[in-house]
Amino acid sequence: MPTTRRQFLSLAGSVTVAGSISIITLRPLAATPAMLNSAIRSVVGEAQLRTGRVKLDIPPLVENGNTVPMTVSVASPMTADDYVKSIHVFNEKNPQPNIGNFHLGPSSGRAQVSTRIRLADTQKVVAIARLSDDTFWQVAVDIVVTLAACTEEMN
Fold it and tell me: Which is nearest to 141 in space by CA: 127, 128, 124?
């Protein structure tokens, strides 16, 4: 049976509409402790996390979570044999649990990174350093935020 012009245009329009529908993925507005642990495990794998050698300099009380100064430093000589490969910073309640990844090498001079971050709410911030011997060192700090950032209201 031959296809009529009307049937053809109807079918073509359906295909066009179906092709233009985008897939929407929904993320929670805040990360959970399980998401934090998963993000950390995606970086360290099954390696043991040791405490020490890493210092996280961040204010314990923050009035505005939109711009929080943070410095992570690692006790390392930064020589060709003993240096920091990377520093990773995670948070507990922001929409994305991984704040940043910083890759270093022996020629970096010192194992230190400074930046400003956004914090959605009162939460824990974790800094992890990977050393050249593939050991992982961490520090965790609880931060109290009085005016939250990273929040979006849906109207």
Answer: 124
Angstrom distances, CA of residue 120 to CA of 98, 153, 155: 13, 13, 19
Distance CA 87, CA 115 (A): 13
Residue written as token pair 């649990």: 97
The C-alpha angle with vertex 23 and arms to 19 and 25, in degrees rounded to 5, equals 175
Q: What is the pLDDT of residues 43-95, one digit of tens each?
A: 999 999 999 999 999 999 999 999 999 999 999 999 999 999 999 999 998 88
**In a domain? residue 3:** no
Number of domains in the chain: 1
* pLDDT 10s digits, 82-99: 999 999 999 998 888 999
Can you give the CATH number for the domain in which 33 is found? Answer: 2.60.40.2470
- The two tokens of residue 139 are 């520090």
Residue at token pair 């922001």: 94
User: What predicted TM-score, i.e. pTM, was given to this entire model?
Assistant: 0.76
CA angle 27, 129, 59 (to 5 degrees): 70
